[in-house]
Amino acid sequence: MNPLNHVAIIMDGNGRWGMKHKNSRNAGHKEGLKTVEKIIKETIKNKIKFLTLFAFSTENWKRPKKEINYLFNLLENFLLNRIQDLHKQNIKLKILGSKKFSPKLNKLLNNSEKKTSKNTKLQINLALNYGSKSELIDAFKKINKNKITISEKNIDKNLQTKNIPVPDLLIRTGNTKRLSNFLLWQLAYAEIFFEKKLWPAFNENDFNRIIIEYKKIKRNFGKI
Question: Which of 36, 91, 175, 205 could form a disulfide with 196 if both were Cys (CB 3.0 to 4.6 A apart)?
Fold first, then answer.
């Protein structure tokens, strides 16, 4: 059976779920946060050490300002009310992406990272204002500035995910089959599962079913 150390998730479908069930995209984002908490619990139960969640992309700034503000208010409230509980559970939070938010949110993100920095049970990587192409460009700029050789090893060292193992498994909900500028370098050999369910409808059984399927896959990494 395949070891499973790192799961990455593109949490797609919140807005569509909200419009379908509550006539409100924001209601879908609120419901999607409940799914996040369920999946965190299942990740711990399955003894998976890394969970990366794609929460807000560099392209998501094109959305209506009211929706963006609601998303960030939701995140602020989550950090204010839940970070102590995550800390007690020995969970580490790391932010991937560029922290170009309000001073209040930036402070909350920095304090949350600092507070949980030594925790070891699970590391949650939250991709916020993240785009893989920008990440790669920044890595090449660092390599060029430091006048070091371009190699896979040196690119890895200059990515935001340095010291984080690459994902073994990517799950994307929402019945959409694309990577959407997410971890393009890191997902080179990940097993990918596209799920029809919208993120708020995704549950523990779905997560565990995918894990069981993943563990049965023969992973060759280019070999026979």
Answer: 175
